[in-house]
Amino acid sequence: MVHMTRQNKTYRLVLLSILTAIIILQTFVPMLGNIPIGVFSLTLIHITVIITAIVLGPWEGALIGGFWGVGSCLRAYLSPYSPIEMLIFTNPLVAVLPRVLVGLAAGYSYRFLRKVKLPDIPSMALSAVFGAVTNTVLVLGLIYIFYRQPYANFLHVSFSGLLPALLLIVVSNGIPEAIAAGVIAPIVSKALRRVVPESIK
């Protein structure tokens, strides 16, 4: 039993290490985690966080989300995609907090949906969508709270036009990101759960 426990801990650690490496690659290698579209960027990194939360649990998802957030801060300091990224994503409240909450939101919503007997794949899909929406709403909401004037200038809109512009980003970016998460995360999570020992889930 002790041997199996150590083996499971090692398995979990290895899996978390692999997922962390994937997050680092997605953060710093262009087109792997963020696809620039004009002044906006389509995010795919959240899918890795969501998969971690579904397969290993909400706190593991939060941990991987934290690595994503810290990586975003570092990238904003070292090689930002734009001047506005250097301003916004060097703030841990914007860069780190929402990404941690993505893992918690996806992981706990998945557990809740399974507890109420929703089938596995729909539970994964809905949890993934909820995690993606959490990221979009929190990041844009915090940008509006802390950086609304600089962000309005960056988007070349008036201060009063910023809120409609943010809603446009939700539609143009947030919805595709949520759909991508809802499709990809269940496929990958289901495959991983087949090979992950039941005792470490």
Q: What this model shows, in words?
A:
This protein is mainly alpha-helical and 201 residues long. 79% of the residues lie in helices and 4% in strands. It is built from 8 helices and 2 strands; from the N terminus they run H-E-E-H-H-H-H-H-H-H. The protein has helices at 2-28, 45-55, 58-78, 83-88, 92-95, 97-115, 120-155, 162-195, and strands spanning 34-37, 40-43. The protein has a two-stranded antiparallel ribbon with strand order 1-2. Strand 1 (34-37) and strand 2 form a beta hairpin. The two termini are 17 Å apart. The mean pLDDT is 88. Keywords: Membrane, Transmembrane, Transmembrane helix. InterPro entries: ECF_trnsprt_substrate-spec.
H and E order = HEEHHHHHHH
The span between the termini is: 17 Å
Residue share in β-strands: under 5%
Q: Specify the overall morphology.
A: globular
Order of the strands making up the biggest sheet: 1-2
Structure annotation, total helices: 8
Look at the helices and sheets and give the structural class: mainly alpha
**Mean pLDDT over all positions:** 88
Radius of gyration: 17 Å
Q: How many β-strand stretches?
A: 2
Q: How helix-rich are the residues, as a percent range?
A: over 70%
Low-confidence stretches at least 5 residues in length (pLDDT < 50)?
Answer: none
The largest sheet, given as strand count, sense and whether it forms a barrel, is:
2 strands, antiparallel
Protein name: Membrane protein
Pfam family, one: ECF_trnsprt
Transmembrane segments: 12-29, 35-56, 93-113, 125-147, 159-184
Keywords: Membrane, Transmembrane, Transmembrane helix
